[in-house]
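Milestone 3.1: sequence recovery, worked example.
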């Protein structure tokens, strides 16, 4: 007897080829591959955030039903994880999924194809009317404006079906996702780095691993950092430390930003993963015992966490107190000054700053110029490196900080961090800056 699930996904694939919901007819001569044949029950799904889920029907009628729960979070989602062997999408053109709005209000829906190892994500967006279906399509060959690929199709970790929480109670009906189109095999830029994924659960920091790491007292809450020890790390050694802050939670066509420590990549790109300890720090929400994806959390608690994290790394893992650098992207770049110079204790940690796309004083989150000028007096480091920041807005701060400042443009022309994982001129300059700074006494 044939496997009923296999029959179901084959029928699902035929439906995907003939469906025209929302975006017009799909070409029937294009081969396709169903992407959730390994998902048997709801328990096989990945993260469900403020969403209840159930499968309904069999064969051609098998659908995933979702209902959004009321929440203070801006976004809700469910992840469809790749099978253990991966989806092997290197010769596929796109991923498509039909989603129907079964609720009583229009729904703001997104479909994301999310890659692992520091790669980005590609998305498809629509406001789906009541009772209507929309065919979401994510191109696996999408690139940033300068041509840099957003994802490696061979390293997709999950599909994320996301709903903006404008209408709690939204109900969706999701049909089988498929990979469409046969194209030439995808090839990567030889110099492009793959960033280690953060290991979840109870993981002991060790050489060459990036683990979810909780400070003493945070073992049972949701506050954590992502700690990476370089492959040459040994107990008793001494290593520079790169501390990094992530961007804000932000999901728009041009930017996929989770607001969480594990999405940080700059510190790895600065060293190519060797010669330094790298810690991705959280913005701390002590009241709710979690990482603040949006805003500063509790700014004083966030600064206190950074001090404790650096002190712990230096004490337990051989971090060099004389060679600690703070870096960040977007919200994290503003945090270099807003958090990193919040008081004399935290300001004393840093030998240098690297900020990408924003800086303290630009007004976001209360980081106005008047406050930034006061905080700048606390800087005791040696140098600052600015990536994709306009030089005209920052000199007053640099004059107060008395810091040697480097300004570069990456050429990526996008609100993202992909530029730090290849050998473009701005990245080579950043790596040289870091090495030279570490050598200064």
């Amino acid at each position: 007897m044939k496997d009923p699930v296999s029959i179901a996904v084959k029928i699902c694939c035929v439906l995907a080829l003939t469906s025209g919901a929302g975006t017009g007819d799909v070409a029937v001569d294009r081969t396709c591959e169903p992407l959730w044949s390994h998902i048997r029950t709801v328990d096989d799904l990945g993260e469900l955030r403020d969403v209840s889920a159930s499968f309904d029907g069999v064969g051609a009628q098998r659908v995933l039903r979702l209902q959004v729960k009321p929440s203070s979070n801006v976004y809700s989602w469910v992840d469809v994880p790749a099978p253990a062997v991966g989806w092997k999408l290197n010769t596929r053109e796109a991923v498509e999924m039909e989603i129907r709005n079964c609720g009583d209000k229009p729904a703001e829906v997104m479909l994301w194809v999310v890659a692992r190892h520091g790669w980005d994500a590609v998305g498809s967006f629509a406001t789906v009317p009541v009772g209507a279906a929309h065919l979401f399509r994510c191109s696996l060959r999408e690139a940033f404006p300068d041509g840099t690929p957003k994802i490696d199709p061979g390293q997709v970790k999950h599909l994320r079906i996301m709903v903006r929480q404008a209408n709690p109670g939204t109900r969706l009906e999701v049909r089988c996702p498929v990979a469409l189109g046969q194209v030439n095999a995808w090839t990567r830029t030889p110099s492009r780095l793959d960033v280690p994924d953060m290991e979840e659960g109870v993981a002991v920091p060790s050489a060459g691993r990036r683990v979810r790491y909780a400070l003493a007292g945070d073992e049972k809450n949701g506050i954590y950092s992502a700690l990476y020890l370089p492959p040459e790390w040994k107990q008793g050694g001494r290593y520079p430390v790169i501390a990094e802050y992530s961007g804000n939670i932000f999901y728009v066509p041009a930017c996929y930003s989770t607001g969480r420590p594990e999405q940080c990549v700059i510190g790895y790109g600065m060293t190519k993963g060797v010669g330094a300890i790298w810690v991705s720090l959280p913005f701390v929400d002590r009241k709710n015992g979690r990482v603040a994806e949006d805003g500063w959390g509790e700014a004083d608690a966030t600064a206190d966490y950074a001090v404790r994290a650096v002190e712990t790394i230096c004490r337990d893992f051989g971090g060099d107190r004389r060679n600690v650098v703070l870096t960040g992207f977007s919200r994290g770049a503003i945090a270099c000054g807003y958090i990193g110079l919040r008081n004399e204790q935290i300001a004393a940690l840093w030998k240098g700053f690297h900020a990408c796309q924003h800086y303290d004083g630009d007004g976001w989150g209360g980081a106005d110029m008047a406050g930034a000028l006061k905080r700048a007096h606390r800087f005791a480091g040696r140098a600052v490196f600015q990536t994709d920041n306009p030089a005209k807005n920052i000199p007053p701060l640099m004059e107060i900080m008395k810091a040697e400042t480097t300004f570069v443009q990456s050429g990526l022309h996008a609100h993202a961090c992909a530029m730090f994982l290849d050998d473009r001129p701005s990245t080579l300059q950043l790596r040289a800056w870091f090495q030279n700074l570490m050598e200064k006494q």
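The chain has eight helices and 24 strands. Residues 76 and 260 are 15 Å apart (CA to CA).
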